[in-house]
Design brief:
By secondary structure, this protein is an alpha/beta fold. It has ten helices and eight strands. Helix 9 packs antiparallel against helix 10. The relative contact order is 0.12.
């Protein structure tokens, strides 16, 4: 597929590497220009482009930018080819993004994103730590393969997103419609807890929407206190304990 990735942080860079390696035609852009994208991100075949052109001639746009930056990309999204799908990887952290009243009042994050950019979105790759995503993808069928939830309102978008998740080395689990995607937001049992396809559905079902903000903030406070000494496994353990 022809894929544009907007954002070259940890998740965006890993997506560029993995999807290009899987044979997709990938363009990647950030807000600072293609010359600032590390050459390591391009070794499997992705091309660095300007943000203004990443939308040209693509079938999928993956947004891997801070949630607070979403409103600013509405003009870019408006020029996407008809039929192109948008996959949102963002998460809301008030300490990082600033407070958004609608989200603080309980609006589902990706519903808010869709409203801001004026196009429907599918949600994937948000509920996995960047280190996990970079290091723990394996071929389909391997024992212990980790799973990633995908929420979508349209079957065709769901199928494309799930296929791409599989291409990045993880089992794709359908998590329901976009309105249900709070089940994979920060604070939920499915969020960044490294679960398999057998474990993830139960975690999604156990989510309690009212508890998400307090659990999200509690986990972040714990991680922040020990950040310099924590491994990825430590962070997963904190998330599992806090979100259980």
């Amino acid at each position: 597929m022809k894929i544009g990735i907007l954002g070259a942080g940890s998740i965006g860079s890993a997506l560029a590497l993995k999807l290009a390696a899987a044979g997709h035609e990938v363009k990647v852009a950030n807000s600072r220009g293609p010359e600032t994208i590390n050459s390591d991100v391009l070794v499997t075949g992705a091309t660095a482009v300007e943000a203004a052109t990443v939308r040209h001639n693509i079938e999928v746009l993956i947004t891997s930018i801070p949630l607070s930056a979403m409103p600013a990309i509405k003009p870019l999204v408006a020029d996407l080819p008809r039929g192109a799908i948008i996959i949102d990887t963002s998460n809301y952290y008030p300490l990082r993004d600033g407070h958004v009243q609608a989200l603080d009042e309980g609006q589902v994050e990706s519903i808010w994103v869709a409203e801001q950019i004026g196009r429907p979105v599918t949600k994937a790759w948000n509920a996995i730590l960047s280190q996990t995503f970079q290091a723990k993808g394996v071929a389909a069928g391997q024992v212990g393969r980790l799973a990633i939830p995908v929420a979508a309102d349209h079957e065709a978008d769901q199928q494309i997103a799930m296929s791409l998740v599989e291409d990045t080395g993880f089992d794709a689990i359908y998590a329901g419609r976009l309105a249900d995607s709070w089940r994979q937001q920060p604070g939920a049992p499915a969020y960044c807890t490294e679960l398999t396809r057998d474990e993830l559905p139960d975690a999604l079902a156990r989510a309690d929407k009212d508890l998400l903000p307090s659990r999200r903030d509690q986990a972040m406070a714990t991680i922040g206190q020990k950040f310099d000494s924590l491994t990825t496994d430590d962070v997963v353990t904190i998330n599992r304990t806090t979100y259980a």
